[in-house]
Amino acid sequence: MVYRVGLTGGIASGKSAVGAAFERLGIPVIDTDQLAREVVLPGTDGLAAIVTRFGPSVLQANGSLDRRALRGLVFADAGVRKDLEALLHPRIHALLAERVDQVETPYCVLAIPLLVEGGRIAVDRVLVVDCPRETQLARLLARDGETLKGAVAILAAQATREARLARADDVIDNTGPLDLLDTAVAGLHRRYLELATSHPNGAKI
């Protein structure tokens, strides 16, 4: 199997920026958030399953999923979140396996926001994008238009910063300028190429 680097971090920590830096180096980044959107597109059995469980109030007028409405339900009730995960995770994992099988580079990056919380996707190495909780809150308020109460609830539903760092093999500090990310990623890229070629089940150059 291709060598798999799990990219994770709290919401608004900068995972997308790090993923983009790997892509600029020619490394495929498979984003489980994107897969989660694909499995609930109009006409999919994933969307049908969500409507059956949560009702038509989670649909927009055009028949697509109303993510804000669904997110309001999920973060208000841990039981509801578990129901949603039970519907989506098997579909996401199946699609993820298909995409990994198509990788032709020595390694790939799996962007998994809830890697620490879920622990159900096997990776060879964990890369954590880190920043202080206060930075996450500020970014959520500015980027997503969240209320402070909503942003706090989102962070509370995720693993703590300490739990993520405890799982990390590598850490990128994303509190500085964006150009520092490219430098950090370039160094990790060289390391991952070495690891991938020496890994017994990894891809070969």
Describe the structure.
The chain is of the alpha/beta class and 205 residues long. The protein folds into 2 domains: 1-28 and 105-205, Rossmann fold (3-Layer(aba) Sandwich), CATH 3.40.50.300; 34-102, P-loop containing nucleotide triphosphate hydrolases (Rossmann fold, 3-Layer(aba) Sandwich), CATH 3.40.50.300. It is built from 10 helices and 5 strands, in the order E-H-E-H-H-H-H-E-H-E-H-H-H-E-H. The chain has helices at 15-24, 32-38, 45-54, 67-74, 78-101, 115-118, 133-143, 148-156, 161-167, 178-198, and strands spanning 3-8, 29-31, 107-111, 125-130, 170-173. It has a 5-stranded parallel β-sheet with strand order 2-3-1-4-5, sandwiched between helices.
Write a compact overview of the structure shown.
This protein folds into two domains: 1-28 and 105-205, Rossmann fold (3-Layer(aba) Sandwich), CATH 3.40.50; 34-102, Rossmann fold. 54% of the residues lie in helices and 12% in strands.
Features:
205 residues; alpha/beta; Rossmann fold; 2 domains; five-stranded parallel β-sheet
Question: Order of strands across the biggest sheet?
Answer: 2-3-1-4-5
Give the number of helices: 10
Q: What is the count of β-strands?
A: 5
- Secondary structural class: alpha/beta
What's the CATH C level of the largest domain? Alpha Beta
**Overall geometry:** globular
CATH architecture of the largest domain: 3-Layer(aba) Sandwich
Averaging pLDDT over every residue, what do you get?
Answer: 88
CATH topology grouping of the largest domain: Rossmann fold
Strand content: 5-15%
- Point out poorly predicted stretches: none
The arrangement of helices and strands along the chain is EHEHHHHEHEHHHEH
User: What's the Cα radius of gyration?
Assistant: 18 Å
Supply the number of structural domains.
Answer: 2
Largest sheet: 5 strands, parallel
Distance between the termini: 13 Å
